[in-house]
């Protein structure tokens, strides 16, 4: 499976903050926002990732993440000169996807919950259709919402309905089989000239090949698109990190626990950031791992349950 992170757009709801910096580079806790969707893809086991952003912002992402080799990843970049809908990411990323399945993550969505990586791995395996992730909200009229049968098969998707038939919002994480490339290419733009991801998903619904995985009680899904939600996300992350003593979306630790890099490489990554608490945490994790590699399985489970 290949991965795509859509980190484009102009972030107008966060103006004036985003007049000079990409939204997905803003801090959430002590790390850039884009670390969170990147962590989700890494926890799914994906190592080949395309980041789509604006021409002006692309150099900053390259400075931040490089080619990904320090994390055991392959990160490449593509430009979206202006927002033309989420589904355009699948057209831009067609060559990247090739003949594989794909996970598309929005750069401003944060996921955190118990056993999430198990859920990711289970649903990423052997995809035949699309897998969407639903989250119960109090204001479903603000979102695309899904209606399912008792087995989780999607029967319909309503975009910002006046009278919602469900309170399960569809989040910014999408798993697709390879058919999605042709579906996206053949999707007609909306009246606004955008390729709507809901239109892509509805094709799968009509074919009876769409499932909705519900992210239940004890799970958090945060959309950081407004000043209020950005502040709330930062407070949520810091509170959990201070209480649990682990970092959420620490990509160096995830790379180590997932076996993408070894402890020495991880320690060196921490050394580069050693003046910060984040860097000291990475160094401590790497040192502990090197001293007791028998804890690999235990540490990986800790990542899966506490570090999204």
TrEMBL record:
Enzyme class, broadest EC rank: transferase
Alphabetic keyword roster: Magnesium, Metal-binding, Nucleotidyltransferase, Transferase
Catalytic activity, as annotated: dTTP + alpha-D-glucose 1-phosphate + H(+) = dTDP-alpha-D-glucose + diphosphate
InterPro entries (UniProt xref): G1P_thy_trans_s, NTP_transferase_dom, Nucleotide-diphossugar_trans
Cofactor: Mg(2+)
EC numbers, comma separated: 2.7.7.24
Domain Nucleotidyl transferase, residue spans: 2-236
Keyword Transit peptide: no
Keyword Nucleotidyltransferase: yes
Similarity comment: family membership: Belongs to the glucose-1-phosphate thymidylyltransferase family.
PANTHER family membership: GLUCOSE-1-PHOSPHATE THYMIDYLYLTRANSFERASE (PTHR43532), GLUCOSE-1-PHOSPHATE THYMIDYLYLTRANSFERASE 1 (PTHR43532:SF1)
Function text: Catalyzes the formation of dTDP-glucose, from dTTP and glucose 1-phosphate, as well as its pyrophosphorolysis.
NCBIfam families on file: rmlA
Protein's name according to its UniProt entry: Glucose-1-phosphate thymidylyltransferase
Classification of source organism: Bacteria, Bacillati, Actinomycetota, Actinomycetes, Kitasatosporales
Gene from which this protein is expressed: rfbA
């Amino acid at each position: 499976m290949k991965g795509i992170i859509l980190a484009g757009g102009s972030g107008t709801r966060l103006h004036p903050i985003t007049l000079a910096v990409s939204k997905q580079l803003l801090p959430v806790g002590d790390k850039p926002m884009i670390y969170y969707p990147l962590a989700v893809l890494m926890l799914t086991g994906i190592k080949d990732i395309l980041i789509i952003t604006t021409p002006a912002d692309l150099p900053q992402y390259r400075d931040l993440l490089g080619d990904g080799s320090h994390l055991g990843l392959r990160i490449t970049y593509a430009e979206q000169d202006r927002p033309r809908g989420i589904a355009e990411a699948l057209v831009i990323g067609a060559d990247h996807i090739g003949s594989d399945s794909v996970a598309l993550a929005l750069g401003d969505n944060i996921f955190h919950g118990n056993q999430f990586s198990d859920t990711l791995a289970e649903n990423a395996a052997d995809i035949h259709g699309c897998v969407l992730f639903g989250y119960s909200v109090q204001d479903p009229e603000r979102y695309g919402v899904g209606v399912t049968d008792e087995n989780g098969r999607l029967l319909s998707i309503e975009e910002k309905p006046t009278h919602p038939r469900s309170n399960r919002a569809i989040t910014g994480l999408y798993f697709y089989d390879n058919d999605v490339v042709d579906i996206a290419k053949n999707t007609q733009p909306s009246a606004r000239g955008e390729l709507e991801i809901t239109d892509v998903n509805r094709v799968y619904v009509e074919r009876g090949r769409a499932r909705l995985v519900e992210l239940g009680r004890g799970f958090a899904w945060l959309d950081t698109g407004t000043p209020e939600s950005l502040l709330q996300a930062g407070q949520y992350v810091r509170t959990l990190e201070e209480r649990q003593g682990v970092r959420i979306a620490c990509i160096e630790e995830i790379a180590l626990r997932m076996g993408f890099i070894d402890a020495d490489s991880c320690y060196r990554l921490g050394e580069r950031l050693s003046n910060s608490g984040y860097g000291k945490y990475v160094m401590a994790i790497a040192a502990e791992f090197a001293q007791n590699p028998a804890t690999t399985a235990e540490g990986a489970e800790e990542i899966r349950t506490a570090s999204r």
